[in-house]
Amino acid sequence: MEKRPFGSTGAHVPLLSFGAQRIVDEHNCTEEQAIQIVNRAIDEGITYYDTAPSYSKGQSEERLGKALALHKRRDEVWIATKTNDRTRDGSLRLLEDSLKRLQTDHVEEWRLHNIMKMEELEQCFAKGGALEALIQAKEQGMIKHISISGHTNPQVQLEAIDRYPFDSALVALSAADHLVYSFAHEFLPKANEKGIAVIGMKVMALGRLAPWYEKALRYTLSLPISTAIVGMESMEQLEQNLAIAKNFEPMSDLEQLDFLKEIMHLANPDVLKWKSTDWVSGEWYVR
């Protein structure tokens, strides 16, 4: 599988990465299945694993931790987790719990989770805010890289990277996302200019791009990003994603344009819920 530079960190990651949000009971994935899926993914060269304490109340982190500990594979992977608390103290408590569930003394990457509004960004950057926790955790060796994520408004993440030299950013980069508040159009060029690793997410737009599965994944992988995380809750999904990634050929500009025309009707609040006003309450991602 193709590997790409992870921004200016000196690390390289495979173009396909593992979204661990779905290896949970909520998505009908048992613990035994989760352990099998994660280890199969590692066997096939997937080394980057994204999770968060808010995913199924910690079950995602817990299962990822068990999968790695059971087969002693912690040193083979890059773990990224998050804080959805906007304060220093609250974030440090979340990190402590995350490390316990993940059965490790550090993670490679810790990010501010889903900063949707400028007000949230201000909270994180204020005295006693979450950014202080990330900086402190890096100084103490609990994390290696500092990150931010956003689904909604690329202007928020642009402001963030102007204020602080984040190592990476996880942003919504599905084909449908290209058509409304486009991170691909607005955020990617500036992030690349600054040497910030960009990780694509929402690749399938919560399943709405499933009828165009291969095109949807190829579209995101064709962008100038380091990697794309895809949620996987079954061995079948893992194998499908691996097949596309291993045989990946970038979309031409014309192919991308044709695909965007084909799915243009999906650029609405019912599909892109994370960009709708109803969802900018900050509560939807706690699930």
TrEMBL record:
Residues 16-216 form the NADP-dependent oxidoreductase domain. InterPro entries: AKR2_Oxidoreductase, NAD(P)_OxRdtase_dom_sf, NADP_OxRdtase_dom. Transmembrane segments: none annotated. This is Aryl-alcohol dehydrogenase-like predicted oxidoreductase. It comes from Paenibacillus qinlingensis.
